[in-house]
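Researcher:
Attend to token order:
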Amino acid sequence: MQHRFEPGTSPALLLLHGTGGDENDLITLGQLIRPGAALLSPRGEVDENGQLRFFRRLAPGIFDQDDLVRRTHQLADFAEDQSERHHLRQIVAVGYSNGANIAASMLLLRPGVLSAAILLRAMVPLEPPHPPDLGDVPVLILAGRHDEMMSADQPQRLAALLLGAGAEVTLDWQDTGHSIGSPDCRAAAQWLATRFPQ
């Protein structure tokens, strides 16, 4: 999997871009929310009309579930391989939009790979028949009150799904749309500093 790696301190940030992004998109965000952290930023391998994604969708908001499951496991395998290669003790996913959705899918399908997750503008990716035991894994969901890309109930539904699996979920609403802004950066940095003191 094509990616960018910046060595640094633990926990490492697994940066997962949104539709149309690449492995460079969230590097600055990672540096802002956790200065000096190791950064692992893969490139999505699905081409949707010239825009890169981490998994296929059938229409906006309607995901190809088989492809999502397959690529979630591929991404989890990649993260585990890179963790071993670079001696990363903890990995925190930082995903935006499509990247946040596959990060949420990783939590639900491959518990144990991620130590925590920051999900910016995430939807419910899938609902496994048997919820995993997430064992108090901390998750921050940063949602936009005016997000034009999803229905307003999606962040609450995702929070409830992860809470039901045992995660420690914080749902933080920002007064914005689908794009990321400075308040997101501040909220993510503060949350990380609290959960993983330096």
